[in-house]
Amino acid sequence: MGGINKDGITVEVGKRLKKLREERGISMRSLARESGLSANALSMIERGLTSPSVSTLMKLSSAMEVPVTAFFRSEPQREKVVFVKAPSRARIAFNSGLWEGLGGELFSGRMETFMITLDAGARSGPQGMQHSGSEFVFCLRGLLEYEVNHQFYQLEAGDSLIFTAQNVHRWRNPGPQVCNAIIVISSFEEGDKPTEYHLASSSLNEKT
User: Would 197 disulfide with which of 65, 91, 129, 172, CB 3.0-4.6 Å?
Assistant: First the structure.
C-alpha cells in the first residue's frame, strides 16, 4: 500500500497564526525571537506561502503559550457534548503521518481523543513520552507497535491496549502498510496536555 494521502488537509494556519499573534499584541519580530524562527519564515506562513511543520508549530505554540490545536480552529468554549463531522476534524500532518482530532480538544472533561495514521516505518521520538492519565489504543488497520516500560506490544487490526501513561511509552509502525489507530487519553491532571506530547514526539523525527 502506498503512503498517506495528505491532500486537502491544509487549513488556514497562517490566518490563525496572525490572528492569535495580534490578539496577544505580539510583534512578528518578538515572536521570531521567542520561537527561534526568522521573521521572514513567519511572514511566509502568515501569508499562506508555506506550510509549517509540526516542529515549527510546536515552537510557535510554546512561544505564544497556546495549545498547538489553536492554530487549526478558533478557541471555542469547551462543551459537555461534542459532535464532530468527519470533514471538520482538526488535522495536522507530520513527516510520516497524520494526526486527526476526534473532538477531545473541544470537550469540557478530562479526555483527549485522536486518530493517528502512520506510514510504514513511522515512529515517535527516541526518548519516549510520559504524561499523566490513562491511555487507550485501538488499532484500526495495519500493524502498530507500542513500547511501554520496555515491554513491546504488537497491535493488529482490532487489538487494543490500555496502560497508565506515566509509564514511558512510544510507538512505531513496523509493518509494510499504512496503519491507523484511535488513541484516547483520560483522567489526566488539570493543565496537562497529553496530546501535545504525542505531537511533539512526532516532530522529533521530522526531516529538517
Answer: 129
The pTM of this model reads 0.73
Query: Interior CA angle at 126 toward 38 and 149, to 5°?
Result: 140
**How is residue 170 written as a grid cell?**
512510544
Buried/exposed code over 96-110 (b: 16+ C-beta within 10 A; e: otherwise):
bbbbbbbbbbbbeeb
* Closest listed residue to residue 124, CA positions, set 201, 200, 58, 53: 201
Domain ranges of the chain: 13-71, 86-203
Question: What is the CATH architecture of 86-203?
Answer: Sandwich (2.60)
Distance CA 180, CA 149 (A): 23
Residue 51 has pLDDT above 90, yes or no: no
Strand 134-141 versus strand 160-164 pairing type: antiparallel
In the numeric block, which cell numbers belong to residue 195?
A: 496530546
Backbone angles phi and psi of 46, in degrees to 5: -65, -30
Per CATH, the architecture of 13-71 is what?
Orthogonal Bundle (1.10)
Kindly report, residue by residue over 59-77, the tens digit of the pLDDT. Answer: 898 888 777 777 766 555 7
Per-residue pLDDT of 108-146, as tens digits, reads 888 999 999 999 999 988 888 999 999 999 999 999 999
Distance from C-alpha of 118 to C-alpha of 59, rounded to nearest angstrom:
23
Q: How confident is the model at residue 1 (pLDDT cuts 50, 70, 90)?
A: very low
